[in-house]
Design brief:
This protein is α+β, with helices and mostly antiparallel strands. Helix content is 38%, strand content 29%. A hairpin with a 2-residue loop joins strand 6 (107-112) and strand 7 (115-119). The longest helix has 23 residues, at 12-34. The chain is elongated and about 60 Å long.
Amino acid sequence: MTPKRFKSKIDRWLLFLLVAIMVFEVVVISIAASQLNSPREATMLIVAALVIVALIGSMLLGTHYTVADNTLRVACGPLRWKVPIDAIQSVEATRSPLSSPALSLDRLRIHYGKRRIMVSPSDKEGFLKAIGQDPGDVRR
């Protein structure tokens, strides 16, 4: 089976918030670093800010869902999950704001085994078909 990759839908308000956090982080840390007398401490602050910005950026650019070899692979920046498609018990639509590898509140909650994960594919119908679910059967 050819792998099918689905990008995460991104809510504009969340995109704005995350970009604002990254800009704020860089500005505040740069100002704080410029006022330190110790170049070592200033460098450590700048490196910490860059790590945080890189993490948020990798989540913005690297949140996607891939269906291949009877497995749903979920990626959110450096974080990864594998969900066996045969283990999926149900899928329901949700707007839950709980933390998840989804960049939109327009989400699908996938129940598998004793676990669940929320995703927000931009192509919901194509995603549901790829994981063997009938889009008409998704609970709202």
